[in-house]
Amino acid sequence: MINSIRVSENFTTTGQVIPQQLEQAIQEGFKSVLNLRSPDELGFKPDEQQIAESLGLNYVNAPLKLEELNEELITKILEILKELPKPAVIHCAAAMRSTGIALLSIAIEEGLTPEQTLAKARSLGFGFIEHPHVSPRLKGVFVDYLNKHTKVAVTAG
C-alpha cells in the first residue's frame, strides 16, 4: 500500500486512508481495517466503514485519543486487533498511533523487551522515541505499557 509502513506480515500502518487505498488493500490481500481515529477528529471519514465493508474488508473503529490514552484502552484495542482477520491495515491521522499499536501487539506476542521493540521500530524507519512529531504522552504511555506487558530477556550468567 502506498504511504504505509509494513510492520509485519500481519500489520501495515498508515495515516488516514482514502477509498483508493482501501481498494488497493483488497487487491493486496488485506482482510481488515482498524481505524484508531475518533469521529470528532478533524479529517475523520464518516463513510469509511461503508466503503471498506462494501469492498469485503472487516472494519472496526476503535478511537484512541491521546487525552484518553491509558493502559485499559490500549489493552482493549490490542484485544480487538488480535481478533481481526489478518493481514490488517491499522490507521490513524499520521500513522503514529497506528504504528505504536502494531508494535505493541508484536512485542507482546513475540515477548520482545522494550529495547527490542524500539530497535524494531527504528529498523522500520519509525524511530518511535526519537521522532519529533510523536507526543511525549504517547511515548510515555507506550513505553510504560511495554515495560509492564512484555517479557524481560533473562540471560544465564
The CATH homologous superfamily name equals Protein tyrosine phosphatase superfamily
CATH fold assignment: Protein-Tyrosine Phosphatase, Chain A
Q: How many beta-strand runs? A: 5
Helix/strand-derived category reads alpha/beta
The low-confidence runs, each spanning 5 or more residues with pLDDT under 50, are 153-157
CATH top level assignment? Alpha Beta
Biggest sheet: strand arrangement = 1-2-5-3-4
From N to C, what is the helix and strand string? EEHEHEHEHHH
Structural Rg: 15 Å
What proportion of the residues is helical, as a percent range?
Answer: 40-55%
Characterize the biggest β-sheet.
Answer: 5 strands, mixed
Which terms would index this structure?
157 residues; alpha/beta; Protein-Tyrosine Phosphatase, Chain A; 6 helices; 43% helix; 12% strand; disordered C terminus
Topology of helices and strands:
Elements: E1 4-6, E2 11-14, H1 19-27, E3 32-35, H2 48-54, E4 58-61, H3 71-83, E5 88-91, H4 96-110, H5 114-123, H6 136-149
Parallel strand pairs: 2-5, 3-4, 3-5
Antiparallel strand pairs: 1-2
Describe the structure.
The chain has a single domain (4-149), classed as Protein tyrosine phosphatase superfamily (Protein-Tyrosine Phosphatase, Chain A), CATH 3.90.190.10. The protein contains six helices and five strands. By secondary structure, the chain is of the alpha/beta class. It has a five-stranded mixed beta sheet, sandwiched between helices. Helix content is 43%, strand content 12%. Helix 4 (96-110) packs parallel to helix 6. It has helices at residues 19-27, 48-54, 71-83, 96-110, 114-123, 136-149, and strands at 4-6, 11-14, 32-35, 58-61, 88-91.
